[in-house]
Amino acid sequence: MNPLALISITAFVTATLSGIYIFVKNPESRFNRTLLAFSALVAYLSLTDFGLYISESYGMAALWVRMGFLWPFVVPVILHMVMIFTGRMRRWYTLAALYVPAFIFSVLELTTGLITAGPLLTPWGWTFAASRSPAYDLSTIWGLVVGLIALILVVIHLKSSSSKGRTQGLYLFTGLLLPIITGFLTDFMLPFTGIEVPSLTNPAAAAGVAIIAYGVLRFHIPVLSPINAAMDIVRSMNSFLIITDLEFRISYVNPAAERLTGFSAAELLGRRIDEVMEFEGKLSEMMGSMAESALKSRDGLVPVVVSAGHIHGSGGEHVGLLFTGSDIRPIKEMEQKLKRREERLVLLTEHMADGLGEFDRDFNFRYLSPSVKNITGYSHEHLINRSAIDFLDYVHPDDRENVRDLIMSDEEMHRATFRIKRPDGSYRWVEYVDRPIRRDGGISGYVFGLRDIHEHKLAEEALRVSREKFRELFRNMNAGVIALTPFKGGFRVLSMNPAAEEMEGVVCGDVKGMELEKALPGIAESSIREALEGVTGKDGPLHLPEVKRGERWLEVYIYRLSTGEVVIIYCDITLRKEYEERLRSSLREKEALLREVHHRVKNNFQIISSLINLQLSEIQDPAPLLDLQSRVQSMALVHELLYESEDITSIDMRRYIERLTSSILDSYHAAGIELNVSAKDVTLPIETAVPLGLIINELITNSVKYAFSEGGEITVKLESEGDDFILTISDNGVGFPPDFVLEESDSLGLKLVSGLVDQLDGDLEVDMEDGTQFRVRFSVVPYRPRI
After folding, report:
1. Residue 717's pLDDT band (boundaries 50, 70, 90)?
2. What is the value of pTM for the model shown?
3. Helix, strand, or coil here: 87?
């Protein structure tokens, strides 16, 4: 038999037994599971080599060459195991980068001759012939690159390992790298130089698996090396872990320690632990304990909590020290936040108006805020030594039993309002509420709040009394009150007082909630319904002074409340309307009588004037009688105008002055005198108009008689100025003598003018430049009862 066939079958058995042995030693290890897969791959390829070496024909050899299509997976699986062992297998896409090219080359190997051209008979038997194609060159380069990466990772890991770990790892890496180096020599390097040798890659791989199995047997490598799950946990844990030798020199740091310190493992290895961490006291005294410390990082000190312990060897001896701990900066920050929150809470409780307190399960006070004194009147020292049960002595006797029963009940929360007696003997209303403090599944006490509601209670009582008064007023007022609530498209009856029920002939309970049109058709069919839509509440109530409903008259006020309801308040004013109509009828009768009086007074004045006319023909000097007649006519004209006017209480002064002055000019046949009258929109009562007319009569008569020789101009002007009136009468006649003094004049007319001005409580001014001007300032004379 071909010796190489014996070697191949031996490699098959060795790879199979070694892989099973390693897997059984630690089936949970990811490295062991991968190594088992590698052993199965090597055993399979060794079996194909055996079939190739014993083939007796080209066809049989070609079959076994194709059956070895899985050879591209050998080097990726080796790199996979190296990465697991060194802790660098962390991402899924690393596996994709390893195995996708191997899968492509395997497919090409199985389906084409681009990588292996076919079988080749050599002096040592059948083997495979390489295809000189780009695919073969690419697969060779890819295999070399992957193998080189595995070699570099092995060297890096061995350099950073301890002496014992380096010895243990050497067995693993020898077993993994042996097939890579052997395959590189027998399948590439020696054939490239012209030396033809059989491929020994698969036997070398089987030998490598056997070397690893020996390392497992001797050093328990799958248990103590970083391959196992413990090392994965150490690398991925958030807590830092530092291993030192017995001289406190660092031999290992996990990634968390690197992140916290900001230093790499290479910078930390070999340094003493006290160069990296601050300690109080001796390091040996920390063993087996936990304490707060600080890691020295690039950015300063990092507060940590750390525990220390010994690492024991297989014989129980101390082989090193383990320091592990956590970053407590978040805890420190939380403590600061809690401290600030507690300070704010204390400040709040000390200054808030409500009192706060706490008592235990036996109702003994444990805490009382300062506000409790402001509410109860008792100091902290007076209350803190008492229990809540003792405090019941300060509760009003009428409230005491209710409060006691409430507090002693098993309810989760207690709430009560009661009166508390203050030191001065007065009682104040307070509101009490508490909640349980739970600890270890039970209630350890209560926290309570105390609020002074005395003013609120007084206001509440006042509001209750006010509401009662309102209800009483609502029930007993004579005016009807109807409250409506609006809804989309109309109004609904909310309430009615008895007066409204009586006026509408309904009972509130029967129509409450009904639409207005159905409940109160009388209201709905009147002008009140239209007015309801226009009330807004912004401009006050809407007042309808007179609303006709059948035979009745109503006065209506409509209010819109801030809550949206509409209130109708209305009174039956039918009797009042009847009284007003009677009064208007009486007034019309009195006005007619008064007009008749004015008419008769005017007629009497006309009789007097006619009598004067008869007397004029019998006397030699008619001037005095003419003056008298003019005065009588001025008074008669007042009554005539009152009789003709719609308003019998006041005189239109413009019309009065125009008729009076025209009458005077006609009486004295003063055709050459021009008269100007100005009295716009001035009306005066009879008490003022009569004396004012006499003044005008005297002054105009005086101007007509004495101011002109041939002709001239007289101006009469009456105007208002605030509450006063000003009468101005002027002429452009010859005027008074230079030595004229009004007060010393013996003229009857001027004396009459002065007296009438005094009667009006007015002032008289005389201007004798450029003719004569009289200026009278007066106000309306108030009515003075004659009886």
Report:
1. very high
2. 0.35
3. coil
